[in-house]
Every structure is written in C-alpha cells, then in structure tokens.
Amino acid sequence: KILGLKGLMKQNLYAQDYHHAFIYGEKLFNLNHQIEEIYNTLVKIISKTNNWHKLIQINEKAFKFRLIDKEIYSVNKSIALYEISIIKKHSDLKDSINLIEQALKLRQYFPPYVYHYTELLIENNNFSKAKKFLYKSWCQFPHPDYKSIIKLLSKKMKVPYFQLADYVTSSTKSLSQSKILL
User: Contact, 97 vs 126, CB < 8 A?
Assistant: First the structure.
C-alpha cells in the first residue's frame, strides 16, 4: 500500500497534478510519517496549491511526531497564517489582522509580515497603532521596504513624510538605515 501511494504521488508530481499528488502524499504521511522526505515533499506541494490550512495541519502532526524542530514549526506555521491573512484581506479585514498578529508572534519583526500588518492597520484606519508598530519594528529590525508603508501612513494621517520618518527613526538615528530613510 505504501509503495503504491508513493508511486501515485510521484506520478502525479511528474504530471504536475499537485492536487492529486497531495491527496496521495497525505495518505502516505498518515500511514507512515517517517518515510524519507515525505514532510518536505508535502510542504512543496502545498506551496504549489496554496492550501495553507493543510500546511498548518501537516505541520502540527510533524511537530507532534518530532519530525521537525520548534523553529521549522514556527516558520511554516507563520507562513501559512501570513498567506491566509493575505487571502482574507478583502473579505474579512478583522480576521486578516488577527491572523497576521498570530504570524508575528511566531516570527517577530519579519519585514513582509510587518509590512502587511501595518498595511492592514492603515486600511482599518488604526493609524496610531500602525505608527507605534512601525516605530517598534524599526527599532528592532530597520528595513528599507518600510519606506513605502511610511509614505502611505503619512499620507493617510495627513502629516509630512519627514515628520513620520523622523518619529520612526528617533531612537536609531545613528544607524545607516535610518540615515538613508531620512
């Protein structure tokens, strides 16, 4: 049975039928989670199908079976939460914010997450929280991608860009990234 499922999974992978490859791969994983590279194969398939809820489920099982360590578990779960947050951005803004907050707990101050979270806060008209979060994020991990989100926030708050950039960089003026931003 295991050999048959493995063959069917590989056959569908070669045919780029990721949906069926995942079905067989998941059955294989549930039968014997210690098959070499099954977890990594499933993660790759999930990234092709954008089935992020399945990534959370597979990740939980792999962590429970001690196939992955805490760091890989956190990174993969945060990726799934981030991707689901992006999908829900247009249909349920509050849920999207909640999901990205969970992702940020797993990977604090990761620039794509910070950018997305700040963008959601701005869209939700929570400018004060966005401003404070950008300040904290810049203090922990200054990143050049924040320039455009700072511009957007300054426009929405109706304050000059330089004033907001000065606030964000106020405790890190000596850093080269802060000088570049200003």
Answer: no
Q: Residue 125 carries which DSSP code?
A: T
Closest residue by Cα to residue 85 from 114, 126, 49, 45: 114
Pair 4, 24: CB distance under 8 Å: no
The amino acid sitting at 133 is: F
Query: Does the predicted model carry a pTM greater than 0.85?
Result: yes
pLDDT in tens, 140-166: 998 988 999 999 999 999 999 999 989
User: What tokens were used for 182?
Assistant: 């200003």
- Locate tokens 């962590």: which residue? 63
Would you say 125 and 93 are in contact if contact means Cβ atoms under 8 Å apart?
Answer: no
- DSSP string spanning 64-95? HTTSS-HHHHHHHHHHHHHHHHHHHTTT-HHH
